[in-house]
Specification:
Mean pLDDT: 78
Number of helices: 8
Order of helices and strands: HHHHHHHH
Shape: globular
Radius of gyration: 19 Å
CATH superfamily of one domain: RNA polymerase sigma factor, region 2, helix turn helix motif
Largest sheet: none
Length: 196
Amino acid sequence: MRQELTPLGDRDTELVAKSLQGNQLAFKELVERHHTTAFAVVRGVMGDSDDVEDVVQMVYVKVYRNLDKFRGDSKFSTWLYQIARNEAINAVKKRRLATTPVDDVVIAAPEQDSPEAAFRRTAAADELEQAMARIDERYREVLELRYMGERSYDEISEITGLPAGTVKTYIHRGKAALKNVMTRNLGRRDAAGASE
């Protein structure tokens, strides 16, 4: 039976304690409860990259190895956020030092779609990913947590340590910046099409 009445923080504390006692199922549940947050944070820092899943796995390894250092002074999600963000930043630094470019991620279309519809969806996803990569990291991070991680403003505030008003401002500014980038890209595309 699920313990739906247990507050998020209390359940996390319980799972951490069980994990420290060697209970692998407890650690698995802890990871599952916070996967969307870890993924959104890493992706928010790294942008569209083939390495996001690898970095998320490294986050879980680091969490597991350092679980005994979690003191419970803050929520588990806040502690996880810091680890995920640091791992993503380190991965970006390493990637910048690498000389080989990363291939673009191609989203496979479901078989029932026509090739044209699949192409449009992939092109739109690619355009969004490119636009996300061009906005300020602060905005990209909260947008990822809000829309990919499906977190509320209050949860984002707790995870990032930002005041709730700042979170709302960053999301508003991030959406405006994203719209601005995509509008400019559309203008360039239209201008290129007119000159052909």
